[in-house]
Amino acid sequence: MVIMFVCRERGGGGARAVRRRRLPLAVVGTLALGVALTGCASSAAQPVPSDGKPVVVAAFYPLQYAAQRVAGDRAHVAVLVPPGTEPHDYELTPPQVASLSAADLVVYQAGLNAGLDQAVAQAGPANLVETGSLVALAPPEDAAAPGATTTYGHDPHTWLDPSNMAAFARGIAERLGAADPSGAAAYRAGADAFIAELTSLDADFRTGLSGCRTSVFLTTHAAFGYLARAYGLTQLAIAGVSPEDEPSPQRLGELAQAARDHGLTTVFFETLVSPAYATTLADDLGLRTDVLDPVEGITPASRGTDYLAVMRANLAALRTANGCPA
User: pLDDT digit string (tens) for 130-149?
Assistant: First the structure.
């Protein structure tokens, strides 16, 4: 018996099946690890090493990174959403769903992907960290751009505030230590080391974004609410929390006027979704475009190889766009 895997490619028309391959049913109980393929984001089921180490399944990149920093080499950390794949509407494969029940710990953020939320609820993993429960969530009215065609609940992009990532690290260390008591001290030490780096990142943001010509920035995707609130910024977004939102003509007109009012120089876009709206608006207003990365996944196009590096690249981009002092 076999399981069919479908590799999905993001394009203008959404996800579409582009290639299939068959794997033995025996791998259904193993973890689905993300693999980046040229022009195609896929999930591959790989055997879990038989070394007795705990297995952590993280929903997508920033949670994977936090879990890896906490666990070090004492646990295996797998990610569900493959690198280079936009996570909001990613569809889990059957082995990935099975991996949720088999894992020693599952780390996910509710509200980002409805299919993942349902899979976690059905799997009922023994140990679970829902990262949104560890921090103060943004109010629902902040979760969609005015004029967007869809509305959402709380903004799920919690990891873009480094202090929230610190809370994730503490929560992961606690639950992983409960699942693996012999490693509890090591997990706390891993969390402490990571938190020290996050504290430094937070300080750099506070210093780097003070005294700027403007505190307003314009981006395609309303993913940066937590970052904006943490550092006294105002986010103007073309689309809502989901990058699939379609802005109304009225919304685009409002943003054009706001850009003029605040003397904005830049329209930000991101690496995992189309820059079409950002490019069109920038061209109409004579502005430049640049990348502001929601760190939903690391790709070859990312300005950095991990969360910390990409966040520092975001800081540099905001400083340039907002006229911050050297």
Answer: 999 999 988 654 544 444 43
Report field, pTM of the whole predicted structure over 0.90 = no
Distance CA 93, CA 3 (A): 10
pLDDT digits (tens, 9 = 90+) for 24-50: 323 333 333 333 322 222 233 445 566
Q: Which whole-number Å values give the CA distances from 92 to 76, 141, 192, 295, 310, in the listed order?
A: 20, 29, 32, 20, 26
Task: Catalogue all structural domains in the chain, each as residue range(s) with its CATH number.
Answer: 2-202 (3.40.50.1980), 211-322 (3.40.50.1980)
221-225, long-range: CB < 8 A, 24+ apart: 221/270, 221/273, 221/294, 222/143, 222/144, 222/145, 222/155, 223/155, 223/157, 223/160, 223/270, 223/294, 223/296, 224/157, 224/160, 224/292, 224/294, 225/138, 225/142, 225/143, 225/155, 225/157
Kindly state the average pLDDT of the residues 202-226.
95
